[in-house]
Design brief:
Blueprint lengths: L2 E7 L6 H10 L8 E8 L2 E8 L2 H7 L11 E7 L14 E2 L5 E9 L2 H10 L12 H11 L4 H10 L3 E9 L6 E6 L4 E5 L3 E5 L11 E4 L4 E6 L2 E6 L5 E2 L4 E2 L15 H7 L1 H8 L4 H13 L3 E5 L1 H18 L3 E5 H8 L8 E6 L5 H13 L3 E6 L5 H4 L3 E4 L12 H21 L4 H24 L1 H10 L5 E6 L3 H16 L2 E6 L16 E5 L6 H13 L3 E7 L4 H5 L2 E5 L5 H4 L2 H19 L18
Parallel strand pairs: 16-17, 16-18, 18-19, 19-20, 21-22, 21-23, 23-24, 24-25
Antiparallel strand pairs: 1-4, 1-10, 2-3, 2-4, 5-6, 6-7, 7-8, 8-12, 9-10, 9-11, 11-15, 12-13, 13-14
Helix pairs in contact: 4-5, 7-13, 7-14, 8-13, 9-13, 9-16, 10-11, 13-14, 13-20, 14-20, 15-20, 16-20
The protein binds 5-amino-5-deoxy-1-O-phosphono-D-mannitol.
The site of 5-amino-5-deoxy-1-O-phosphono-D-mannitol has 16 residues, from helix 9.
Length: about 625
């Protein structure tokens, strides 16, 4: 949540304002309810900030206009946690002297006590945010005679919580300070010229590919074209290695598509082909650990949780053992009395920064000797630090707030592990395993074919359902994961109310809502649940439900019962059906995307959401 961007340079001929605006816009997916910028000139800070999206603010106040001699700027795009999205609550926040400015991504848990103490000492607050205590605490430490860096360190010793911080001081025009604890921060560098900080790499990727990834409890002093790192607990200097970013900025830009969401749906086949190349050795390590484990849990949030539901189904099929899927925010409560040593926890997170997932893993590791296997899309993300083994999915950067290509690459990765398990256990014939492998290898092509030929039919479904605001997404077996994920997408980007549910269980209550024309989307690959699903379709049809079904190419029975069908171009045998969460979900992502457009919404910026949820 929230994006931070900072720059310090010694270059005369660059347009600082433009770089800052473009940098912070590339982080807008992290939060977009207000934005602010601070720059420094002649020992004075210049702040511009307001509520609203960056483009709206830019129309009112020119965020790119800085004093000519400015060489340093910090910027922030906000996802409100403490205090409404107003101008006063926008970052940066300043101390009483107006000399210290702070932008912050994260939450200071004990801010209420600290704020009371500061107020009693006469400090004046202009916002309702937790962040505003930080510049005031630094102000106190500097008045006590500490230098800028030590004041930051001492001030942060008083704060409990999570932060990615960038801090500048009007009397220190040649440097600024950043600190990381549980909220991501990366440093980009053009040696000898310019240094950047950001919550995520795309913010500076058009300017440099060289970067440092900060770890928790690290502080960095950024100067033009140079940076020094310190451990905030020991104040010792840390040597860090520069990393070279291999992907191109095109991967994080729209490249001719109207929205990131659409672009990222169309990137799925390529992202999956890349993910298929994950090292077999690594997959085998995961497979062996799971094979020898007695208790296996899989944990995640949101879309990653639905990918986990699909993945646990596929892995269990080949592993012959039950895997319990637990939402990460519930893991501690559910396992507090039952977690056993040697349990294995698979953690799935696109960002690797979701605080609930990280906390679940940290808790489990603190309680028992568990093994953590992580699947994430972000190299070096926080979650990877608490993991015994990590697989990085190869989706490339995902900017759209709604997860799309990362869902598919997560399920694919879990499926690849499942195939390795099948090979190890040898309970299937080699020829059988080869057929599953071939079906999995064909999934990118199936998706590509679907996306190429079905946009008009999806738009037709959108038109047919334009008056509907409530939906059921129903399925049985493994497809319940698809129903939940497809429903989540429509909820997020099209603001419709959706119940993604078991088709069998729906008659125990939800069916009470069905009236003439109520839309029910059935996910219906012809697997072992198909015959029973026909019965469920009939139950809903008998009550006037409008039946929209997702079926395979040659489907007949459910097609006959449906008002509308969406046909996925794939065979309907067991080798393909087990991977249907991968091949069926893009249709539902497209449905959500075009429904969002139809209702005049912005699918890249759903209301109240943020790409990375770093609050509990
Ligand atoms: O980065 P993560 O995969 O851990 O994120 C988990 C959820 O916050 C995320 O999937 C969320 O549900 C998205 N908005 C889904 O589109």
């Amino acid at each position: 949540m929230c994006g931070i961007f900072g720059i310090i340079t010694n270059q005369k001929n660059i347009s600082l304002g433009k770089i800052v605006l473009e940098g912070i816009k590339r982080l807008e997916y992290r939060g977009y309810d207000s934005c602010g910028i601070v720059t420094l000139s002649d020992s004075k800070l210049y702040v511009k900030k307001d509520s609203g999206r960056i483009d709206e603010i830019q129309k009112k106040i020119d965020l790119t206009e800085f004093p000519n001699d400015s060489k340093l700027a910090l910027a922030h795009t906000r996802w409100a946690t403490h205090g409404a999205p107003t101008k006063n609550n926008s970052h940066p926040h300043l101390d009483c002297s107006g000399k210290i400015a702070v932008v912050h991504n994260g939450i200071i848990d004990n801010f209420i006590e600290l704020r009371k103490e500061l107020a009693q000492k006469g400090h004046i607050f202009k916002s309702e945010t937790d962040t505003e205590i930080i510049p005031h605490l630094i102000e106190i430490k500097m008045k006590e005679g500490l230098n800028f860096k030590d004041s930051v360190i001492e001030a942060l010793k008083l704060c409990k919580g999570a932060y990615g911080l960038a801090i500048c001081h009007a009397d220190h025009p040649d440097s600024f300070i950043v600190v990381r604890k549980e909220s991501p921060l990366v440093i980009g560098i053009e040696e000898g010229k310019t240094t950047y900080c950001a919550s995520d790499i795309p913010a500076f990727l058009p300017l440099t590919r060289k970067c440092y990834i900060m770890d928790d409890d690290e502080l960095a002093v950024l100067k033009a074209g140079e940076v020094e790192f310190f451990d905030i607990n020991t104040d010792k200097k840390i040597e860090k290695e520069i990393q070279l970013i291999e992907w191109n900025i095109d991967a994080a830009e729209k490249g001719g598509y109207e929205h990131f969401m659409l672009k990222e749906i169309y990137e799925e086949p390529t992202a999956m082909k890349r993910t298929m190349k994950i090292s077999k050795d690594l997959l085998r390590i995961f497979a062996k650990i799971l094979w020898s484990a007695e208790n296996i849990y899989i944990t995640a949030a949101g879309t990653s949780f639905y990918a986990s539901l699909a993945g646990k189904f596929i892995i269990s099929r080949f592993l012959g053992k039950y895997i319990q899927a637990i939402e990460c925010s519930e893991l501690q409560t559910q396992l507090s009395n039952s977690l056993k040593d040697e349990s294995v926890i698979i953690a799935v997170s696109q960002s690797g920064e979701t605080i609930d997932t990280i906390e679940a893993i940290r808790w489990a590791k603190s309680k028992k000797n568990v093994k953590v296997l992580t699947i994430t899309n972000v190299v070096g993300s926080s979650l990877t630090r608490y993991s015994d083994h990590v697989i990085v999915t190869q989706a490339g950067p995902e900017i759209g707030v709604a997860a799309t290509k990362t869902y598919n690459t997560q399920v694919l990765t879990l499926a690849l592990i499942a195939i390795e398990i099948a090979k190890l256990r040898k309970v299937e014939l080699d020829s059988e395993i080869k057929k599953y492998e071939k079906a999995l290898e064909e999934t990118p092509q199936i998706i590509e074919n679907f996306l190429k030929n079905n946009v008009d039919s999806i738009k037709g479904v959108v038109n047919a359902l334009e008056k509907s605001v409530n939906f059921f997404f129903l399925a049985r077996g493994i497809s319940i994961a698809t129903a939940k994920e497809g429903g989540l997408k429509l909820k997020e980007v099209a603001c419709r109310f959706i119940e993604g549910y078991s088709a069998a269980h729906a008659k125990h209550g939800p069916i009470a809502l069905v009236r003439e024309g109520f839309p029910i989307i059935f996910i219906a690959p012809p697997d072992e649940t198909y015959q029973r699903l026909i019965g469920n379709v009939m139950e809903f049809k008998a009550r006037g439900g409008k039946i929209i079904s997702l079926v395979v190419e040659n489907d007949k029975n459910i097609t006959e019962l449906s008002d509308i069908t969406i046909r996925i171009p794939q065979p309907g045998d067991k080798y393909y059906n087990i991977f249907s969460p991968i091949t069926f979900t893009p249709a539902l992502q497209l449905l959500a995307y075009y429904t969002s457009l139809h209702h005049g919404l912005d699918p890249d910026k759903p209301l109240n959401l943020s790409k990375t949820v770093t609050v509990h």
